[in-house]
Amino acid sequence: MSTAMGVPESGAGVAFMVEAPGMMTTLQDAGRLGQGHLGLPPSGALDGMSLGQANALVGNAPKPDTQTGQPQEFGALEITLLGPRLRLSGGRCVVAVTGDAEVLVNGQRVETFRALALEAGDELHVRRVISGARAYLAVGGGFASTPFLGSVSTLVRAGVGGFDGRALEAGDRLPLSDPAAGIDHAGRAGERHLPQREKRPVRVVLGPQSGAFSHAGITRFLTAEWTISTLADRMGYRLQGPELKSPAGHNIVSDALLTGSVQIPGDGRPIIAMHDRGTTGGYPKIATVIRADLARLGQMKPGDRLRFEAIDPAHAETLWRGRQRAFRRYLAGLAT
Amino acid sequence: MMTPTYHIAPLADQGVLIDCGETIDIEVNRWIEAAALAVRAAGIAGVIGIVPTYRSLAIEYDSATITQHELIARLDALAATLSVGQRRSRRWRIPVVYGGEFGIDFDDFRRRHELSRDELIARHTAPDYRVFMIGFMPGFAYLGGLDQRLHTPRRDSPRTRTPAGSISVGGQQTAFASVEAPSGWHLLGRTPVRNFVAGRTPPILVEAGDCVRFDAIDGARFETLQQDRDWLPDWEWIESGEAIP
Question: Looking at the domain that runs over B88-239, which CATH code has it been given?
C-alpha cells in the first residue's frame, strides 16, 4: 500500500489499485523546469508529445501551477516496455493510452489514442509496448499527487514527485483527483501519432565543447551509425559505435548539462543525457539534441540505431515551431 | 574586478551557455554568480532556468517566447556591463564525523598523505570553503579552497553507491553530498545535514556562492542530530571576499 504521504485527499475516493506495476511505471508531467541550480533535473515525460496527446484525449488541458504560475501538463503514467495491471475502485473514470501499446480492458483488446470509460472493478492492463519504448496513460481529471516545485514528475533518485517518489509497486493505491471531469470525453479519438515512426537522423547543434574534438572526430560522430546500448534509462543513453577520442582529454571543469547533451567520456562512447540526468557533468559535450527531436529520442530503447545530423540553432527553432503547430492541429482535430 | 573572457555558445535551441572556459578560479566563479543574479533580476521573458557552474552559466529558454538571437543580444549586453561588488554571503557550520564507518577512505587517505588522524581533521576543518556550484545530484555542493596537501586524484574505480551526507575529496575539490549517489571521490566522513529535502521550505539550504566550514563531531552527536527532525545547521552572514584568501 502506498502511504498517503504527499498525496492530497481525493474527495471522490476513486482510485486505481496496482495489481502488477510493470517494468518501470512512474507518474510524469512536462517536468520540473528551472530547478537546475538546486541540482534538480527536470524529469518529466521522455516523450512529451505522447504525454500531451494522452492528456488532450481525456480533456486534461494544461493549467497554471499554483506555485509557479507556469502552465503545466497533468501527470500521466509513463510506461516502459511492460506496463502495469490496474483495477479501478470506488467509481468511474475515463482513461486514454498513447504510444504503440497492447492494451486490454477486462481481458479484451482496446484501442489506443481513444478515451475509454471505465467502471468500478474494471481491470486495465497495458500488456506491452509494441514499437518504441514508452506509452502514456492519462486519466480524466488527473491523478492525485502533490506537486513539488511546480511538478508531480517522479525523480526516484531524490524520492520526489509521483506516488511516494518512486516507481509503482504492487499493492499501491493511486487516487484520482477529479474522475468526473473526463466522463464527457469518453469515445474521443485522435490520430495515432508515433514519434518513433520518424527514421531521419537525430538533429543536433554542435557544441558547446565540439572544439575539444578533431575535425575527423566530429565527422565520425556525424557519419557513424550508433546503437543504443543496454545502459539506457531515464538518466541517459550510452551509445555503441566507433570510439571518439578528444585530443584535449576527457575531463573538463564541470559544466551544465541539458536534456539531449551528448557527452563523450573517457571510453569514447557517447552518452546522451535524458530527463533524470545530472545537472552538471565533467565530460566534454560534442553536441546538443534539438528540442523537436527529444520526443523521438525518448521512444528509443536498447538495440535501436540512430545517426546524427548537425543543423544551426535558427533552423532548430523553426523545426520546433513546426512541431508546436502540428500539436495545435492535433488538438483542434480532437475538438470536432 | 575585470570581466573575464567569455563567449556565448548555443545549446541547440534549448539554451545558451555563457562560458569562461577551462578554469577553476574564484574570481571567475564570483563573476558567474553575479551574472546569474543579473540574468534572474532582468526577468527576461522566455527564460526557463539558469544553471551556474564553476566556469559557465547555462540559460534555458523557450523559443516560442524569445529567439536565441534576441536572447544572446540581451545576455551580451548584461555580461559586458556586469560589476561584481562585495556581497554578503552565508557561512554554514556543517558537523562531520570523520573516519570509521562514516568515512571508509579516511585511514587510507591519511596514510597516503602521511598525516595523523588529528592532523587530517585539522586540515580539512580549517578552511572556509566556497560553494563553487550545486550540481550533479540534488543539493550536491562542490567546494573550493581545499588544503593543497589534501589534493588527491579520484579513485580508479568509482563506487556505484555512496551514502547520503558523504563528505569527500576528489582532485583539488571537496564536496558535501545530500542524496545517495555514485562517486569516484574519497569518502572522509559524513554529516547529518541533508542539503536537499523535498518537503522542507526551502528544499535546499547551502547554495552556490555560500561558504561552508566543517566541524568535527563524534558518532553519538551524529546520531542525536540525525534523529532530531527539526534540527538545522547554524549559519552567519559574512562579507564575500573575507572568506577565502
Answer: 2.40.100.10
Closest CA to B17 of B40, B36, B42: B36
Please determine, for the modelled complex, whether the ipTM score is greater than 0.90: yes
Question: Virtual CA dihedral for A146, A148, A154, A159, nearest 10 degrees?
Answer: -100
* Average pLDDT estimate for A255-274: 94
Domain boundaries, chain B: 7-80, 88-239
Q: Does the distance separating the beta carbons of B67 and A317 come in below 8 Å?
A: yes
CATH for B7-80 (2.60.120.260, 3.10.20.70, 3.40.190.10, 3.30.1360.40): 3.30.1360.40
CATH architecture of A198-325: Beta Barrel (2.40)
Residue of B9, B22, B198 with shortest CB distance to A158: B198
CA of B142, closest CA in chain A: separation in Å? Answer: 10
3-state SS of chain B: helix, strand, coil percent to 5? Answer: 25, 35, 40
Question: pLDDT tens digit string along A164-190?
Answer: 999 999 999 999 999 999 899 999 999
Task: Give pLDDT tens digits for B172-182.
Answer: 889 999 998 88
Collect all residues of chain A within an 8 Å Cβ-Cβ radius of residue B56. Answer: 255-256
SS3 state of residue B230 = coil
Q: What is the rounded CA–CA span in Å between residue A163 and residue A146? A: 9
Closest listed residue to residue A326, CA positions, set A187, A198, A193: A193
Q: How many CB atoms lie under 10 A from the CB of residue B147?
A: 16
Chain B's closest residue to A255, CA to CA, is B53
What does pTM read for this prediction?
Answer: 0.93
Report, as an integer, the average pLDDT of B31-40. 94
Is A37's CB within 8 Å of B58's CB? no
Q: List every span in chain A annotated with CATH 2.40.100.10.
A: 198-325
